[in-house]
Amino acid sequence: MGITQVEGSRRMGIMNLKKFAVLFLTILVIFSPYAHGQQRNLKTPQNRLIGHWLVQPLGVHYYFSPVNESDLMGVVTFFVPKDYNDKNVAGKAQTWKYAVISQEPEGEEIRLKIDPEHVWLKDEESQRKLFAVAKDGKTMKMGLYDVPYLGDVFQKDYSCIYLDSKVSPNK
What we know:
Helix content is 19%, strand content 32%.
């Protein structure tokens, strides 16, 4: 007994569907960020900190680079979008070096020392910032400098959301 035309068409359709599925999955794997080593390392707060963060409700951006193994310093860039309400800082970026002072490797907290010394930051303690980076790497609490004479804005904790893996506004 031979194959009827209907059965043959059905088998061809199933084979074409299988070929399409294999082709689709291949393309998906090739263009997946995981295929190119872009999966974020979320093991420690230091690893989760790396990347581009949006500070809410201020609307400003922080970019954290990895810590350089030779000098144990990283770079943090603070960027204010052009549409920010304070035109004195809008569209500007400031870059500083940072060092990890301490972290809870299995937890969320990390304390950084931000350099250089700012004119209005007088003592060693005021140059330190505490961050709590969620274990899923999607959100972060940022404690700003504790400088009483500058007002409440510098004493609050701000919520941040992770946007992408960029380590500077230009990259």
